[in-house]
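PROTEIN–LIGAND DATA SHEET

This sheet pairs a single protein chain with one bound small molecule, adenosine-5'-diphosphate, given as SMILES. Inputs appear in the order they were entered. The predicted three-dimensional arrangement of chain and ligand is reported afterwards as a token string under its own label.
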Amino acid sequence: MPEKKAQIILELAQAIGDQLGMSELLGALNAALSSCIHFDAITIMLLEGDTVSSYCAHAEGFARLPGESLEAFVDRYASIMKVQPPPLKLSVSHHPISEMMKSATPYMALDLESERRFESDEPLFNAQFRSYIDLPLMKQGQLIGTIKFLSKEKGSYTDTQIRLLHDVAKIVAISVSNALAYEEIKSLKEQLLLENSVLQEDIVQRSIYEEIVGSSTSLHRVLATIEKVAQTDSTVLITGETGTGKELVAHAIHRRSSRSERALVKVNCAALPAELIASELFGHEKGAFTGALQQRVGRFEAANGGTIFLDEIAELSPEIQVSLLRVLQEKEFERVGGNRTIKTDARVIAATNKNLRDEVNAGRFRLDLFYRLNVFPIQVPPLRERVTDIPVLVDYFAARLARRTGKKISQIEKQSLSAMQRYAWPGNIRELQNVIERCVILAEGEILRVDPAMLPQEEPSVVRVPVLTGVGLDRKAQIEAVLRQTRGKVYGPQGAAAHLGLPATTLDSQIRSLGIKKHHFK
Ligand SMILES: Nc1ncnc2c1ncn2[C@@H]1O[C@H](COP(=O)(O)OP(=O)(O)O)[C@@H](O)[C@H]1O
Ligand SMILES: [Mg+2]
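PREDICTION REPORTED AS:
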């Protein structure tokens, strides 16, 4: 017997090692056991709270079809046997497992004809089984289910046979709990994959706008325009105060265009001295000017097939304005110091925080160039005109900065949020971003608070100066009078622009064109 036992355990281990399905495993087990005990069927039930459910079954001479569910298998078996299919799930009190819950020992029904203690015995008896031995399946001292060996003959088991089945049950228990863990992992993995794909869709959805955050209607209007214009090759002129997201809009247009695979080349027209900007934009030939030691490819060439983003376009000198006009009209240019005409296919996106019409009126910007640029204007509204974007932006920046600084911010203080919504944000979203950055760094708990000193509110005592054009005061004096009242402040609800009933950008350019020094009023 000991050799036989070793043989059976080995065969069982072999079957497990072959990674058979659970019902094949039971088949292999039954075959291995047949040399010392005969059984006609084996079933495994699992404990789930107050119930036990069928997990697996094997019937001798009755193979499970590939891919057949346990339920279909049991139904098929029952219909061939011309019996009622047994329930796949029943209360623990109707099953010998209720005995094993008290003590983890085998339960034997040696003659079902004379005694059927449990309700679960009835369908077994009807299916012509006459005896069985049911053994607990234990995992780390916990009862997880039972394995039942059924016979069509009345039964009697020797102690040795019971001990053998006990050892078999131990191995089966390991195998079952591995299978369960595997199934759990598999379903978790499927769920994870699903979540991942949803997340990825989310990422795609968001990256369309390159993290342009906001829910206000005016921002949605901008997003809708981006969507429309991106697909064309039209020149776009983006206007809006500093920090409103003009560059972000330019990127979004490029990303959404058929040119997205090619470069987006940015030129800041204000950052370069006038003498260098031509060479920057158009390139130069070797020796074109002192210091031009090498031939240089300009930004328009680099942007060929892609997009060129001309930021702060209002700052271009009159000469460059002429050259740019030619590029826009003819799609060609020459390098500085060269006479070969170079063709370019670069889509132009320009941006400015000035009112270009005012610049034209003041004689600083060419009207024909303005028309060429203004093919598709996009006006990005200042933050104070879309206060409903503030909560989402604050959330977004706070979460991003918290992640970067390893902090946890769970809430924004209500008062701080309303203070932010009252504030005029002359620096717009860039300023908001900076304020949030400072607050996150300073934050001690999980609640984000904004120090009111970061949001200087204008004194409400400033007297409104009526707009009195042509009542003696000339325009310059009138603006200066208002600036004196507002201490040089142009923007915001208490700023000079609001007093004069003008868009701040318009007033700003009037101030510049009249040569008023607003900082003198501070
Ligand atoms: N709607 C927005 N959502 C998220 N970040 C924004 C948004 N608008 C602007 N920003 C951020 O604010 C800063 C200023 O934007 P930018 O495009 O450089 O403004 P502009 O070119 O108009 O001065 C950038 O860091 C930008 O990423
Ligand atoms: Mg900018």
